[in-house]
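Title: Prediction job returns without error message
Component: structure pipeline
Severity: low
Priority: P3
Assignee: unassigned

Description:
Job completed but the reporter wants confirmation the result is attached to the right record. Sequence as submitted:
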Amino acid sequence: MLKKIVLPLLWLLISITLFSCSAVKFAEGSQASNKRMKDLTIAMVEKSSQPYTSNVLQVTALKDSINTVITNEKRRGKWNLPTVNMWNQMNGMVTDFENAWKAQNTFSPVFIDQYKQRINKLFDYIVNLEDNKIKPKN
C-alpha cells in the first residue's frame, strides 16, 4: 500500500523537479560527489552482513558526508531545493537503515540486495536530476 502512494508521489516530484531545474545550472562537482556518495552508501549497505558495532565509524562518516552534501547543495540557491529534498530523503533512508541495523545487528544477503536496489534507485533520480540541469557552455 505504501509503495502505491510513495512511488507515484516520487514520480510527480521528479517530473516537477526536472521541469523546474531548467533555472539551475549543472555542477560537474555535484555529479562527481553524487557518484562518490553512491559508492560509499552501497559499500556501507554491503557491510551490514557484519555486526553494526564493527561499522559504527563508517556509518557516522557516511552520515557526516551526506550532511555536507546537503549543505553544499543548499548553497546553490533556492532553485536547487528539489536536489536538497532528494538528499534529505537519502539521509532519511540511511538513518532508517542505521536504526534497523542497530536493532538487528546483521542483515541477510537478500535484505542487503533489496536495500541496495532502493539506494540505487534514489541515487539514479539524484543523478538524473543533476543531468537535466543547464550545462554551462564551453
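Comment from assignee: result matches the submitted record. Confidence is low (pLDDT under 50) at residues 19-24.
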